[in-house]
Amino acid sequence: MLVASKKPLISRSELTTAIRSLNGFFSDGLIDAIQPTGPATVYTTSVTLWMMVMQRLASGSTLCGIVKDFIANRPAFCPENRRLSEGTLSQSSGAYAGARNRIDLETVHYFYQQVLDSFTERPGPLQFRPRQTFLLDGTTITLSPTDELRKAYPPASNQHGETVWPIMLFFVAHDLQNGTAMLPEVGKMYGGKGDSEALLAKRIFKRLPRESIVMADAGLGIFQVAYHCLQEKHDFLFRLTTQRFESLIKKAELVEKRWKKRVWKLQWEPTAKDRKGCPGIKKGEVLNVLIHEIEIGENGEKLYLVTSLSEDSESLADRYRCRYDVETDIKEIKVMMNTENIRAQSEDMVLKELYTSLIAYNLLVQFRRQAASLSGVAPRRLSFTEVLNTYNSFLRIDLSILPTEECIKRFEQALAMASTCKIPNRPGRSYKRAAHPRRQKTTKEQKAARKKSNTKINENPPET
Shortest CA distance to 18 belongs to which of 368, 392, 262, 363? Predict the structure, then answer.
């Protein structure tokens, strides 16, 4: 039988406080005060939000399924109601669906921020605490083909016209230290002038904590993203494409040349196109940056970085290696939280499902962090899938219905079990870990690459 460690991660008093705080999100009345309901309402604002989060933790359970869960495991903060006490509440999902539609996006935003703040350590003055690093990346989500969604998020098009499915551009910032996802930005990917990742990044910069460090891949390694980042008092570390690197170093000054690395100092001037993306930029304004060329691997592959940080090349390369973590984080959001299969019919409901999915994701990330600390490994060494399974088995419903002492016991058991869910080391692996499995449909380029690979195998059969 699995028991909790003799040296628990946190004390029982801290566990008691944490569990009470979790119930307090719903039972303190603040959420219901923001959006009150009638005295005879079963699906109050707090109950409905709780059910939506539980639904996402169950990887997108059906509405009827979560209603049955609610009837079987009524939370302590649920209001007294005769239909509940007599067992005559309908199992139909109609009332719950209506309650979901009634909730305002502002209420979901408030709850999102409450959960996020509970994971953030209360820091001292800026000069006495480590700076937070955020990983930026974006992806797309395919939505239901309703007229409202097709208008808000136009489908892709080709030579034969528009396709069927609306495509949402989804952009998020993940905290490198604790893995939590900030409130995302969304926009349209297609349809005339879409919402660029640069525009969504600008909005996210305004919400990041002061003096953060932002990392992003080469798609965001452009002047206007760097400019908006510095305008919000953040530093950046962006990758550059080979073409942009070769263009920028023509005007840069070489300041360091050593084995496998070179460093340039550059006054980065905006182009005419950059000025359009930076309204209000003063004439002659430039960004003082450093460009690093670092040789990585044994095959001579090179990493091109542009940054406002003054660190050496080795430190920047080590820091940038963590950027790929956001790719697997997005995979967990899309696949394990099932956000790529959101089938809401309206834009408002799509956003509410997306935000509650990320609330559920952040709860799991925090649980994984605690389990990782118990086993003494990095959080991402624990399988997100297995941590989710452990969470659902021990904690998804029970914390809201069991007495505090029983909750503490189950929480300790769950932590001990989750701390063993390690991803195995694969030292001989010669291929990159896939961040997200490709869809079954493929492209002409992928078919050609697969055909070429099969040809090489046939030409060079393995020795027997």
Answer: 363
Phi, psi angle pair for 57, to nearest 5°: -65, -25
3-state secondary structure of 108: helix
Instruction: Count CB atoms within 10 A of the CB of residue 398.
Output: 15
* Regions in the chain scoring below 70 on pLDDT: 1-25, 27-28, 60, 120-129, 194, 426-464
Tell me: the pLDDT tens digits for 255-303? 999 888 999 999 999 988 888 888 888 888 899 999 999 998 777 889 9
Three-class DSSP category at 78: coil
Structural contact between residues 451 and 406, judged by C-beta atoms closer than 8 angstroms: no
Phi, psi of 316 (to 5 degrees): -65, -40
Could you tell me the end-to-end alpha-carbon distance of the chain, in angstroms, rounded to an integer? 47
Query: What Å distances lie between residue 63 and 94, 142, 354, 423, CA to CA?
Result: 9, 20, 15, 33
For residues 252 and 378, give the distance between their C-alpha atoms in angstroms, rounded to a whole number: 39
Q: Tally the C-alpha atoms within 13 A of residue 315's C-alpha that lie toward its C-beta.
A: 5
Asked whether 13 and 404 are in contact (CB, 8 A), the reply is no
Query: Dmax of the chain from CA atoms?
Result: 79
pTM: 0.84
Residue 156: φ, ψ to 5°:
-70, 160
CA distances from 376 to 212, 326, 363, 412 (A): 27, 22, 20, 16
Cα–Cα separations (whole angstroms), residue 72 to 10, 87, 88, 333: 31, 10, 12, 28
